[in-house]
Amino acid sequence: MEKNTIVVASGNQGKIKEFKEMLEPEGYTVLSLADFPDMPETEENGTTFHDNAIIKAQAVTDRYGIMAISDDSGLEIDALDKKPGVMSARWLGHDTPYTIKNAKVLELMEGKENRTCRYVCAIAITQKGCSPIVFEDSVECEIAHVAKGNNGFGYDPIIYYPPMQKTMAEMTKEEKNSISHRGKAVKKLEAWLNEKKQ
User: Fold this and answer.
1) Is 74 helix (H, G, I), strand (E, B) or coil?
2) pLDDT at position 198, please?
3) Which of 159, 165, 163, 166 is nearest to 143 (CA)?
């Protein structure tokens, strides 16, 4: 496989799309777990975003000997003791639609004055014979009072970003990538990859 091929160790179409949008213009071929149907499911048993990102990427590198990146990200809501946190994707069940998860968050936040929250992202990159490298970032937001917007994915319709006065799901992909936890962590990843190319 070409050295500029990167496997995103994820089956989440929203995440894969965002990585493609950010990395393909830089000359990378972005594959995903869909391109490796024989890859067994990896158990995410880490206690932090950092640990889970490494677990997922390292499993792909160990099996196929290729460069992999994995993003582990989620939502920390201060009024809910930073939940759902590392369980964000699995909260209320992995297959539960986000419309239901978002409605549940709004219900739990009813009457709460403190609506501060953040999206956190850890991106691990693994290569054969090398130690994993992790890039982390976050974006401070608030839980909206109602879900708004049709862009993005996951919790985006209920995540309000005060500087732009809109939810993540109301932003264009360019707006979101410029301020999002993943966008900022990917910029760190891109800087590292560009250094490596030289």
Assistant:
1) strand
2) 61
3) 159
Establish whether 71 is a catalytic residue: no
User: pLDDT tens across 141-171, in order?
Assistant: 999 999 999 998 999 999 999 999 999 999 9
pTM (two decimals): 0.86
Surface-to-core class of residue 149, CB atoms within 10 Å of its CB (0-12 exposed, 13-18 middle, 19+ buried): middle
Among residues 51, 62, 72, 137, the one annotated as catalytic is 72
Q: What is the dihedral of CA 153, 105, 119, 11, to 10 degrees?
A: -40
Residues 172 and 150: beta-carbon distance below 8 Å: no
| Rounded Cα–Cα distance for residues 186 and 91 (Å) | 25
* Type and span of the H or E element at 175: helix 173-179
Q: Could you read off the pLDDT of 69-88 as tens digits, one per residue?
A: 999 999 999 999 999 999 99
Q: Within a 10 A sphere around the Cβ of 28, how many other Cβ atoms?
A: 21
